[in-house]
Each structure stands twice: as C-alpha cells, then as structure tokens.
Design the sequence.
C-alpha cells in the first residue's frame, strides 16, 4: 500500500514536468508552430530558475520561502520565454523552417544549460536544495488526512500551478475570443488574416507564452522532483521529447494532459518499482512513444475534425504566398 | 503622442518577395553571413570561455586539420553526416518532413549488429557482411516506410510520427544491449559480443565511408535531376493536387521515396556499426540524424552545397575539441548560433524589406512616428534582427 502511494505521488510530481511541457507546447502548436525546441526550452527554464535561485540565495542572509519561489519561477519564465522569442523571431519574422529552427533551439538550449551548469559548478547545489525545500512545502492539512491527503494534498505549489495552467489553457481555447482567434491562426492563417486577426502578434505571443510555460516543466523537474541537478539536465532533454509526444497523445487538449501526464510519468518511473531485468525496463520505457504513435495513427484514421492536429501545423505564413 | 486626427495606418515597412538576386549576389550574402557568424562565434568564445576570436578560429582549424589523422577523421565525419543528409533530400523535396533519420540510422546499425551477433563466427565473413547490409538496410526501410504508409493512406502527421520512431529505435537498442551483454556493464563490445566482425578496410579505415558518401551524392544527384521518379517526387512536393491531376500516383511516390530515404539511412547505420564503431549504442548516430536535417536544409538540398554545410558543422564540432574545454557544451552553443545566422540569412535572399516612402509634404513628424510604433510586422524587441542583418 505504501509503495503504491509513493508510486502515485511520484507519478504526479514527475507528471508536472510533462504537464507544463505539453501545455506550453500545445499553446504554441495551436497557433501553427511546431516547436521542436521544447527539450531545449525545458533545460533553459530549469537553468534560468537555478540562476535566479542562486543569485537570490547568495544575495540575502535569510531566505524568504515565498520570495524565493516567486523569483525562481519568474526567472524560469523569462529565460524560457526569451528562447521562445528567438524561435518566433526566426520562424515568424524571418520565416525560417520550423523543424530546422526548433531542432537548433534544442541544441542551443541544452548546450546553454549544460554550459551554465559547468560554470556554476557546485555553488548552485546548496541554493537549489534550499529553494527546493520551499517548492516542496506541502499544504498544512495534508498529513492529517491519511492516504487521501497523501495522494491529493501532499504536493508543492508547482503541481497545483500546472493543473491550474492546463485548465485555464483549455478554457482559453474553448471559451474566449482570443482563444478562438489563436486556433483560427493555427488552422487557416489566410482566412484569419482576412478576418482581421493579426497573425504575427498571435504567433509571437503564443510561442513566447508557450515556451515560458514549458520552461516551468524543467524547473519543476529540477526543484520539485529531483531537488538537484547532477543528473537532472540529461533527463530533462528526454522528458522534453516526451512532453512533445504528450501533446499528440492528448489530442491538443490540455485538460486531457492532466491525466496523460500522470500516465506518462507513471510509465516513466514504473520500471523502478518493478523487480524486472534491464531488458524489460527498456521495453517499458518505449511504451509512451509507441502509445503516442498509435494514438496519432488512430486519430488520423478516424478523421474526427476536433481531434486533428492544427491544419497549418509546421507551416509559416506569408501573406503574399496564398 | 496620440493624434486626434485620423492617421492613415501605413506600416513603417512591408515585406515582399524578391527574385532579382543573381547567383553571385546570393553567394556573396551567404559568404558574408558565414563570416559574420564566425565573428560572432569568436566573440562568444571570448566572453564565455576567454579564448580570443583569432586563437579560437586557429584552434578550429588545428582541431579539424591539425594532423593527418585528424584530417581523415574529419573527412570521415563529413562523409557520414553528408550521407545521412543526402538520404533526407528526396523526402524533403517531397515536403515529407522525415525527422526520423536518427532512428533509421540506428535501426540500420541494429540490423547489422543482429547479424554480427547471431551469425558471426558461424557463417563465413563475406556472408555476414552481405547479410549485415541487407538486414540493416531493411531495418532502415521499415523505420522509414511505416510513417510513409500512414501518411499516404490516412494523412498521418509524418513529423510527429518519425520523431517518435527515433526513441523507439533507441529503446530497442538498449533492449538488445541488455539481452546480449551479460556482464552488466551495458556496453556492447566488438570483440567480446559481436565476434570481432568489421568490414575490410580499403587502404585505411576512413576510406569506405568517404567512398560511400561520394557515390551516394552522385547517384542522388542523377536520381533527382534526371530520373522520372525524381521529377515525380518534386512535383508531389510542389503541389499534391497538380501531381494527382497529371496522373502521378501520390501514395506510391510517398512510399517509394521513403523506402529510398530509409534505405540510405539504414546503409549509413550499417557503416557506422560495421566499419566505424564496430558496435551499436543509442549514441551511434549521436544526434547526426537531426544535424543532417540542418545540413540538408542549409545546403538547399543541393549535394554540392550540402558538402559545404556538412563541412561547416564538422568543422565546428571537430574544431572545438581542440579547445580542450572541461565544458564541452560550448560546442553546441557555437554551432547553434552559427546555424541561426545562416538560416536567418535565407530570409534576406528570398524577401526584401520595403520601407515606407517618405510621407509627402503635409504629413508632419508627429504623424509619422506613431504608426511606426504600432508596426505589426516586427515587435519592438527586434534587436536580434540587427544581429542577423549585420
């Protein structure tokens, strides 16, 4: 029973990374931009958070938990958002190929993160563990509620923030005018343009905001799940690709992402809880990718319109070219 | 700054297509971009790792061509990267975004390794070599053609499909490694596990991959330029409707092209396993399947230009080894920055920015400024634009 509860809570905590990552990527993809730079964005988000935490802890004598969390999150948002700005400048304004740019963003982001880690060295470790304890501060009444409290209330702020972000994003897509416009831009930019929607603005904003949200995924992995970054950054890249997979798995619906992220992370950590050989572990680790492919193929077979990828996904828009 | 009278909203500039550049102008712009990119990379090395730009460039050269052996290795790396990029070209020309080269190469390597493991030592070497080629290429084809079939029949998004296939391939390789390697080291070795099988050398170990790349480049050039199939795939890439109208079987072309693309990737995997590394790991392709996309794109799908773009990547990669950094991440940063410059410069080759003509007479300065601030085309933080334009 205890092992089961630990398994569930770990899945939810790791799921936060996937949820932030995929929600951000969904926002970007809904506007028609397939950002393959997500792994890089996650890494940069994580490292920006670490930078912020290190500077804050270094600057003050007494660490204020709330402020530390706020500063770290803000830094992650800004760092990842800047990478999103670079991506959107290249793809929206300069109309570079999205796949090429995205892959280069991954190379750049992962490289940058590793470089910063190498430069900061062990100085950051203390700061990370200090701030990580602030991030992991759970709700006060959780421990009085037995297994129920464990499973639902024992998490740090990022878990709830991720769920809230996903819910808000879904609401934004389905219920607001701007969300409708955003989807129009991703489905058929020429028509959206004719309707007076500013394509450039929507694409810039969706990419930058999407990247900023994705960046929190890396942050939550380093600060909430691992609580350090020794092996963290290598895994962050792999998690980034899984986040991209999760977008497809959830059919571009962040609400589904809440469940999907827990499922993906459960599969990701399942081998650690099973007494099986390495070979079987490898097969289990491949399941999320396989399932994603199956979902992708089945949705394309069924051709239900609401389940399709944005029609203009991966294509740049130039007004004179239609 | 709000003006009460209505201002006719005319953006500060607009962007128009251009095709008035002749080949030497294009070449000059590209060359200038590369120079600027390297200068910028030099500045980065100065600020980030404290190596001044000239030493930095010098080290890049020494790292790539410093000794005879280094030159050979650089040429071999160039050949491998170029081969993968060449494999991608038919698919890309068809606008089939095969970003699964990494997986297709790995599967080729795995196919070869399977032959080495199960047949090595029992069958004659020549038979094993042949089977390695056949099985490896077949594996590459399977990994490439599955997304193609789904794309052709159900219009499944190929970018996402091929991306996922990469990681499936990696998991399969870890799986076989863990089955075969019993000592728990997790490292598959040529002598202990794969019966020491390696392709025979032609002169030295580096010649075979280089030869393969040259042959591939020539074959591909001919295939794309002079064969009916090459023409068909470029028509499909330009417009599927046109292709259908003139009686091209689009589905057949998509599947056939991806068979070729996957086969060449598989072949490269066989070479990596059988001739270069002697084994297969999840790192065998080492991200080159992704880098090759950039090589193909930057090289405009032209085999000759692709040699240059592949060289650029190899130059950065091999060259930065010479810097002896404790932090090898610097190489990826510099490579990415240089590529950003190059893909950014493409914009200025195919588009031009037309600035608004000077307002005539009656418009005063006050009327001129506000629209500029509201320009939708570029947000105010376009500081990066200057970098690319510089």
Sequence:
């Amino acid at each position: 029973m205890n092992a089961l509860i630990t398994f569930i809570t770990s899945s939810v905590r790791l799921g936060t990374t996937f949820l932030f990552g995929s929600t951000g990527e969904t926002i970007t993809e809904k506007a028609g931009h397939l950002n393959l730079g997500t792994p890089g964005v996650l890494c940069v988000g994580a490292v920006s958070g670490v930078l912020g935490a290190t500077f804050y802890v270094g600057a003050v004598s007494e660490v204020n938990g709330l402020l530390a969390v706020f500063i770290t999150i803000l830094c992650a948002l800004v760092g990842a958002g800047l990478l999103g700005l670079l991506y959107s400048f290249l793809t929206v304004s300069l109309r570079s190929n999205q796949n090429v740019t995205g892959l280069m963003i991954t190379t750049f982001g992962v490289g940058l993160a590793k470089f910063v880690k190498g430069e900061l060295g062990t100085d950051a470790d203390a700061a990370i563990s200090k701030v990580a304890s602030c991030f992991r501060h759970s709700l006060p009444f959780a421990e009085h509620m037995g297994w129920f409290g464990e499973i639902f209330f024992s998490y740090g702020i990022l878990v709830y923030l991720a769920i809230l972000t996903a819910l808000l994003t879904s609401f934004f897509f389905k219920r607001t005018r701007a969300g409708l416009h955003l989807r129009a831009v991703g489905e058929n930019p020429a028509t959206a343009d004719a309707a007076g929607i500013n394509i450039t603005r929507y694409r810039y904003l969706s990419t930058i905001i999407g990247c900023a949200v994705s960046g929190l995924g890396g942050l939550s992995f380093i600060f909430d799940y691992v609580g350090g970054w020794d092996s963290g950054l290598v895994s962050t890249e792999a998690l980034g690709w899984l986040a991209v997979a999760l977008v497809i798995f959830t059919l571009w619906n962040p609400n589904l992402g809440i469940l999907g992220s827990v499922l993906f992370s459960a599969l990701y950590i399942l081998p650690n809880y099973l007494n099986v050989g390495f070979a079987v572990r490898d097969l289990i680790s491949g399941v999320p990718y396989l399932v994603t492919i199956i979902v992708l193929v089945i949705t394309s077979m069924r051709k239900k319109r609401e389940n399709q990828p944005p029609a203009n996904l991966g294509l740049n828009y130039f007004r004179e070219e239609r | 700054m709000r003006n009460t009278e209505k201002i006719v909203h005319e953006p500060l500039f607009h962007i128009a297509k251009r095709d008035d550049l002749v080949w030497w102008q294009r070449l000059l712009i590209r060359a200038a971009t590369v120079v600027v990119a390297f200068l910028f990379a030099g500045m980065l090395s100065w600020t980030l790792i404290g190596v001044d730009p000239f030493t930095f460039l010098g080290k890049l050269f020494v790292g790539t061509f410093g000794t005879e052996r280094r030159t050979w290795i650089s040429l071999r790396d160039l050949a491998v990267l170029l081969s993968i990029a060449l494999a991608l070209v038919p698919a890309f020309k068809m606008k089939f975004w095969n970003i699964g080269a990494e997986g297709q190469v790995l599967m080729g390597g795995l196919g070869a390794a399977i032959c080495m493991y199960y047949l090595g030592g029992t069958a004659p070497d020549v038979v094993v070599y042949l089977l390695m080629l056949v099985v490896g290429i077949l594996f590459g084809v399977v990994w490439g053609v599955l997304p193609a079939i789904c794309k052709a029949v159900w219009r499944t998004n190929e970018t996402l499909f091929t991306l996922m296939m990469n990681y499936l391939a990696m998991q399969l390789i870890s799986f076989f490694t863990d089955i075969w390697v019993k000592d728990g080291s997790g490292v598959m070795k040529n002598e202990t596990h794969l019966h020491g099988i390696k392709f025979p050398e032609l002169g030295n170990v580096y010649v075979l991959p280089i030869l393969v790349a040259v042959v591939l480049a020539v074959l591909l050039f001919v295939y794309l330029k002079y064969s009916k199939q090459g023409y068909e795939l470029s028509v499909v890439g330009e417009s599927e409707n046109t292709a259908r109208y003139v009686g091209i079987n689009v589905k057949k072309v998509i599947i056939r092209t991806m068979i070729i693309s996957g086969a060449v990737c598989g072949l490269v995997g066989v070479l990596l396993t059988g001739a270069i590394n002697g084994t297969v790991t999840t790192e065998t392709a080492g991200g080159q399947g992704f880098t090759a996309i950039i090589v193909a794109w930057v090289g405009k799908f032209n085999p000759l230009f692709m040699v240059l773009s592949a060289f650029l990547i190899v130059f950065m990669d091999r060259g930065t080894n010479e810097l002896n950094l404790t932090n090898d991440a610097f190489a990826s940063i510099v490579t990415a920055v240089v590529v950003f410059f190059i893909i950014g410069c493409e914009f200025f080759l195919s588009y031009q920015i037309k600035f608004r003509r000077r307002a005539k007479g009656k418009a005063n300065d006050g009327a001129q400024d506000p629209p500029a601030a509201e320009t939708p085309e570029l947000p105010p933080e376009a500081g990066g634009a200057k970098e690319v334009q510089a």
Remarks:
- Residues 2-30 of chain A form the longest helix (29 residues).
- The mean pLDDT of chain A is 88.
- The radius of gyration of chain A is 20 Å.
